[in-house]
Amino acid sequence: MMQTARINSLCSRVTSGGTPSRKHRKYYADSNNGHLWVKSKELLDRAIDDTEERISDEGLQRSSAKYLPANTALMAMYGANVGQLGWLKCPATVNQAVCGMVVDGEIADPRYVFYALLYSRPALTAKAQGAAQQNLNQGLIKEFEIPTPPLKAQKQIAAILSAYDDLIENNLRRIKISEEMAQDLYREWFVKFRFPGHEQVRMVDSPLGKIPEGWEVMSVSEAVDLNPKLNIEKDKEKFFVPMSGLSTDSMVITEFKYRTGNNGAKFQNGDTLFARITPSTEHGKTGFVQCLTSDDEVAFGSTEYIVMRSKYLNPYAVYFLARELDLREHAIRSMTGASGRQRVQVGCFDNFFIATSAQDVLEKFEQAVAPNFRLIQKLWDKNRALSQTRDLLLPKLISGELDVSELDINIEETA
Predict the structure, then answer these.
(1) Where are the domains of the chain?
(2) The pTM is what?
(3) Among 100, 110, 219, 311, which residue carries the largest CB count within 10 Å?
(4) Distance from chain centroid for Cα 150
């Protein structure tokens, strides 16, 4: 029988944090300064080495935000993502919805504790309390017990599982860099007008201001096919993308399932999915479809998507146009509906205008960025396979079904 131990007995500190007052801008810092500040929505069951926001020294001092060391295990205590986990690759602060578990390295391995919590999460979240929404608290987490083999075995288990996660993290970094490179090129060519050969093209007046000679001013509705008509069989199981499958900062479709039905947005490879409902629109949820098995396949998803398809612009330019801040702000201003359920009106794209280049420039752009798009999908497919293998090993290792005592594993890095 595997021994167990309470979280509190394995940690030197278990604590939550806080949020500096939003009334004082000086409590927050820009992306190059201040302290990392982790919010519960940033807990994605993986390492954290950066955050959406940072807080200043004064913000830390004048709030309940807590500074936690590297290797701290984190868990979301409230709301829709209750039980989501993370671990700090570097020191950071956290808000009040995050429980930080500072593991005593003399007693337990920090990475092992993270994986043991991942394995035991269903049992812990089952203890969540609350009528409107299920919440955890520090008391429940402190008293919760996880399997605890000897320290050496913990380090071996952590080394095995972290090898998969390290590969996944490396691929995620490559995905981020590849998309940023392609997006920078889009902005350079189509926003700043510094496309190949621009030095020989004079700028002329237009309703948008100065644009390159030969370029046209079009509405988005003229340049992009919005919500194209597609038919799909109702009773057959098909690829389905829920709203949770779209990312706020990446083209990748991160979640999908197969299900019957035909109610929702229909799309194919090469289409861009633009979330049209609050708060998903404001958060920037957008995806590029390139994960279907063939270009003829028709998939469907949330009713709250606007499907954007190539018409005058090619698919790659359509995606980056959908990511442009000016367009998103215009779409947000068009929202109508009850508070909390407001939706972007497709008609708003009739009166948002862009400068469009000749097709030869668009073709050169496609040739330049298409390899980035293919690489991104290839890396994501690799990550999905790595995650599946890790998830198969996780319960077998934590439960003791797989014995690691005789394995020759380098555990120096997890010491």
Answers:
(1) 4-148, 216-356
(2) 0.88
(3) 100
(4) 35
